[in-house]
Design goal:
By secondary structure, the chain is mainly α. Helices cover 46% and strands 0% of the residues. The chain contains seven helices and no strands. The longest helix is centred in the C-terminal third of the chain and has 14 residues, at 119-132.
Length: 147
Amino acid sequence: MEYKEVVGRIAPCGLDCSRCADYAGGEIPKLSLRLGELLNGYLRVAKIKEEINPIFTGYPQFEEVLKSFAQAACSGCRGNNVLCPIECAAGECSKEKGVDFCFQCEEFPCSKKIAPQIQARWLKFNLRMKEIGVEEFYREQSRFPRY
């Protein structure tokens, strides 16, 4: 994948927006939609199965979660419809500094308000991108679970 494509998928902090469950057009929403289609009408079977396995009493909630995944609408941190629950200064700061990723900034690593939930990964990911390059980092990260 080319640098420009990777920039469209990875946030300035290094998290891969394209593999997030909330990313519109990502694999999770597509697979969730497909699974929902394949399971259409399964509630009838789930009611029968709950006598044998009580886990199926939660099937309606599972359907709701699956629908939620299928309706993902986030554009990713670089888009116009950012729905990420993590508040992080990296996105705005990278725009102000004119860089694609934090590691490209002269002040990196800095003391900007990086969300505590991603602080350790932010540093690790940006140091790794600096070491091996953005494209290779993307290939490397695609082998690991997003979460």
